[in-house]
Amino acid sequence: MGFIAARLRLCVALGINHHRLTAPSLKRFYMASKTQVHPMEITFLGTASAVPSSTRSHSCLSLRIGSDVWLFDCGEGTQRQLQRSVVKMGRINRIFLTHLHGDHIFGVTPLLAGLLNGSGGVTEGEEDPRQFLDVNNPAIEIYGPLGTRAYIRSSLTHTYTTLGSAYVVHELRFPDDPKTGDFTNLRRHRSESPSGRNIQQVDGLWRDILTDGRISVSAAPIQHSVPCVGYVVNEAPLPGKVDPQKYIPELKRTNTPMKVMRDIQEGKRVKLNDGTILEGPQNRPGRKLVILGDTYDPSPIEPLALDAHLLIHEATNAHLPGVDSRTKEEDTYESIEARTKSRGHSTPQMAGAFAKRIRARTLILNHFSTKYAADEDGDDEAKLIMDTIRGQAAGIADCEVICARDFLSHTVVVPAD
């Protein structure tokens, strides 16, 4: 259907019979005029805090960018959640850990074993071909704070796990952390690549820890009860929208080849056969996703997070008088906030306030106390509680607010403006 529509649009603009339009010319126009945008989709695999419940699993979410899948945190049971979800496990190539509390990392090594052929072993005297893998070409990259490398190495070593492909760990080092070393006396695991980096902060931030031309990832410390990291995923500027009616008459008038439409789509200046200069459309800003770990104050990440298209922020506890029967009479919004902050966490209002400060377009609340069941399967009480939590954040955030539940998927669209 896309080619047919392109043929008709082009023929109308050129004033020619569509049967005279050659396939190569049509393909050049179609590929040039079609905006190349990679899909971005978040899927929540676990939305509980501390312990899982019957409706919420331990912390983990996936980000699909085109055909690649990245995980953010990897709590216990992630592998099983993946098998029940729309996420394709075989596409996972990066894992970003926010901090080393167990409910965020206990699923990492089981997942590595599942992804990288780590099951089983051989008896004495038999040869295991997995012993001869190329550790310089890791299949999985893992990012996390100091201790990530030691935890994974220890877990794989003491469970006698042999992987069929290599992995690599890059650690985000805080100013008080050692600048070198692996934080363990264990030898490097046979499946671990030696190319792992120890990434130092610059001006309080870890900028561009990953960049591949279309996507970059930066990070910053956020306040929790242990060292914790928030991540910012930035998409490179996107091509502007091309209006064929603006350019094709000029190409026709000057008998300029249609192939220049590709340059116009990329925002370049094009010189026509008679010397006329056509300016391509201005690029549009790419999408920005801010994915936070547990926090009672994410202020340090604010410079990186401004104007986010999507903010994912925890909302562990809430004061719900008249809604949640477990609310204590002596509790107030202030007392619940103080108690929540003392444990390193946030309320919906705190999440909404940060969303407003960074001018986020959408806020998704995540990491709920086990007492807040997901609003699914017609549970009216759970729906009322989650609607109230959403409303508490929305009353401050000045943007769209969504409460996450396990297996919720959210597409991050390219805004029209």
TrEMBL record:
Keyword Cell division attributed: no
Listed name of the protein: Uncharacterized protein
Assembly, per entry: Homodimer.
Organism for this UniProt entry: Mycena indigotica
Annotated Gene Ontology cellular component terms: nucleus
Cofactor: Zn(2+)
Molecular functions (GO terms): 3'-tRNA processing endoribonuclease activity; metal ion binding
Source domain of life: Eukaryota
InterPro entries for the chain: RibonucZ/Hydroxyglut_hydro, RNase_Z/BN
Keywords, sorted A to Z: Endonuclease, Hydrolase, Metal-binding, Nuclease, tRNA processing, Zinc
